[in-house]
């Protein structure tokens, strides 16, 4: 579907700003306002095609500040401001006398205003393109809805670096949904599944990579394509489609995670007759159900559900046998079982009396396997699942049987699966045999009471029953204490390995792949979740000897972290003197090896690495359940996977390191050259020490060299941080990247990164930005101001 089309270059003139088309008599003057539910509730474009104002939500007395197609009967929204906070009747939006656009609710509370208005505003206008703008007296756009899209883009609209689309949560809930389309600063266009409510993105399920893209353009003729830096283009709209001016066009990231382009016939719209309605022109990915499959993600439709493909590639969410939706109004939220078939409270010998297996052909739930058996017949697979109270689903294909437990992941019904799922459900006549907890407790109480009455005549039997009860209660209390002691490990879902397992996986710890502050790392191969995979086995050699409790606490905390830019901890071994951690294996080694080796990463790869490290640190500092300060951020602790995605390693372990193994004689943590100045001073250590180390790394990545390089005759450049600041102050940033043609062609971004790096290495911790602001700057949401000299103490980051 994606093919270069140089012949579409003639469309370029059609994507120039069209603010000049705003007619004077349709301009909105300062002081004008609209009222939700009032007679004056919208401002119309000169053509009448679009309206800006209060959109009344169906069956709810609430309003969104929105833009919609006004001529067509559907009044389809293409932009909305207060998606998370609809307002009531009587709310107002006003273009104030000082040029601010403000939305206030019926009580006068500020609900929304544009993030950035670049300069003074003299009027507003709803343009024929669907762009609502704030403009200066000389007709320069200061802000436009096209600059801040929601789930839709329109003809003449452009997505620049950092631009994104976020779908609704449901058809009637306009909060941010579970997917995202982003045009990344490295020039790649990616669709991601999000983890709500954190908003962290899983791996892209559809992407166009190695683009060197500059802009995503939706031109006036209805074609969508990507403009590269070399001015060639990459077409998204299929080349065999003929688009005409007889239709309205829009492109929307829909709630199922599919990006679709739509058209609507203009004929008859003026009198409301409408005609055929919106129809799909094209969409990606072709099969959303099979596209979104990740080891730790629920898939398209949420846990314990499955996705099947409907018309126009729509993902339809359904529950398997024995399950029902958590929320009927949001079927992407997943399903819950009718009955707790996993509790293992029943006598295992009665499993076959109570449960049966329902067959679902061409249906699979990839992930969460705990046992694989082969060769095996289908009947043997059925028996194995029925006899195992942990087994919720038996999946059978090609004489192989997989046992699966709750929650079920990545459910999809598609012919490509080729197998069948055997769902364990209660038999129709067995529901009365399973009592709810309240009834069970009541019945148990009744049984005890009746039993006591019957046995009251026998003091001996009563004393016997009492002794048995005390014994059972004692055993239960001890077991509860044991469960509580290990709750940290259980919550993190880490696997406990034996030393023998690790010895076999590494072939006797044969292949050493690295050494660090904590010990030696070996490569191993083992079967995890029915898949043979490579792992990194870290032998902990230099942790505190009396740290059994500390080890469990820290490893438990690490196991609860889940982010695509952190190396995933899979399990641990604590067997006598043997202490090991088992991580996912990173095939491309460390960033240090790549960055300072003979074959250096290109500019786009380096940008991607910077973004990955920043997002990983932001998660550690601000988004995981308890803050983790790494204390040793450096290229050696940044690992790279098959796609050169950066992943931070060795986080959360610094507390375990013996003081004589901190790499210095002064007792501070970290590695010389990357440590923040406060380590040398008697001041508290905060997450800003990681920001400092990130700043050093950022400059190293931009310049593709180490922070300190002692070369005879080149003393001026020996310390990178000093040289970089000097080049910035002299306006000679090209000196930092003069051997990199791609970077030389992207000097605006080079300047932004260098300025950000200088802010991060400020000697005064309070002047350094937090990692949230760092990521916002990298993504273009916040401008970076002029930094002072790192050792000065002046104004904070703007």
> What is the global morphology?
globular
User: In CATH, what is the class of the largest domain?
Assistant: Mainly Alpha
Query: How large is the radius of gyration?
Result: 31 Å
Helix/strand class? alpha+beta
Number of strands: 45
In total, the number of domains comes to 5
> Which architecture of the largest domain per CATH?
Orthogonal Bundle
In percent, how helical is the residue content?
A: 10-25%
Number of helices: 15
Biggest β-sheet, characterized?
6 strands, mixed
For this structure, the quaternary state is: single chain
Task: Report what the structure shows.
- The two termini are 43 Å apart.
- Strand 12 (123-126) and strand 13 (132-135) form a beta hairpin.
- With 798 residues, the protein is an alpha+beta fold.
- It folds into 5 domains: 1-16 and 156-286, Agglutinin, subunit A, CATH 2.90.10.10; 19-147, Bulb-type lectin domain (Agglutinin, subunit A); 306-433, Hepatocyte Growth Factor; 493-584, Phosphorylase Kinase, domain 1, CATH 3.30.200; 591-778, Transferase(Phosphotransferase), domain 1, CATH 1.10.510.
- Mean pLDDT is 81; it is low at 1-25, 270-274, 431-463, 476-492, 657-668 and 794-798.
- The longest helix is centred in the middle third of the chain and has 27 residues, at 459-485.
- The radius of gyration is 31 Å and the shape is globular.
- Helices cover 21% and strands 26% of the residues.
- The strands form 11 sheets. A 6-stranded mixed sheet has the order 38-42-43-41-40-39. The chain has a 5-stranded antiparallel sheet with strand order 1-23-22-21-16, with no helix packed on it. Strands 4, 5, 6, 7 and 8 form a 5-stranded antiparallel sheet that branches.
